[in-house]
Amino acid sequence: QVQLVEYGGGLVQAGDSLRLSCAASERTFSRYAMGWFRQAPGKEREFVAGISWSGGSTYYADSAKGRFTISRDNAKNTMYLQINSLTPEDTAVYYCAAPRNLFTSGSNSNPNAYEYWGQGTQVTVSS
After folding, report:
1. 121 CB contacts (<8 Å, ≥6 apart)?
2. Eight-class DSSP state of 112
3. Residue 85 CB: number of other CB atoms within 10 A?
4. How many CB atoms neighbour CB 52 within 10 A?
5. pLDDT the model gives residue 1
6. SS in 3 state form for 62-103?
7. Per-residue pLDDT at 5
């Protein structure tokens, strides 16, 4: 069972940057691909970015390309999401997630493919 905890969200101004973190309890964290998702009020949960178990491959939603950077530090059992030039449209609860199986690519954008979820961290961007 992988337990995930996100932190780093908050209330920011448009144009600011944030780095979200996702800490994993499982020492096999390094064997899991990971993903970031977000859910805005009244909208479905959407894929933001994914990263392979090694960190060698990354994947982004079209809406995230250019401003979002996903990374991981397997020695620290932690994944990150750097968000630059935040806009009010980025306001959402951000979740990190891990799939059921080990050593997957991280490219799967379907939330149903992910077994383990954190509780989410709120990002609110004011204009």
Report:
1. 6, 7, 8, 9, 20, 93, 94
2. G
3. 12
4. 18
5. 80
6. HHHCCCEEEEEEHHHCEEEEEECCCCHHHCEEEEEEEECCCC
7. 97
Give CA–CA dist 50/85, Å, rounded: 20
- Residue 108 is which amino acid? N
- The token duo for 103 is 């050593």
Helix (H, G, I), strand (E, B) or coil at 39: strand
Low-confidence ranges of the chain (pLDDT < 70): none
Note whether 98 and 114 are within 8 A (CB): yes
107: Cβ contacts below 8 Å, ≥ 6 apart: 50, 57, 59
Tell me how far apart the alpha carbons of residues 61 and 25 are, in angstroms, rounded to a whole number: 27
Counting every residue written for the chain, the total comes to 127
Distance CA 16, CA 11 (A): 10
Q: Is 67 left (phi over 0), alpha (psi -120 to 50) or beta?
A: alpha
pLDDT at site 90: 97
From CA 49, how far away is CA 70, in angstroms rounded? 7
Q: Which residues contact 61 (CB under 8 A, 6 or more apart)?
A: 46, 47, 48, 49, 109
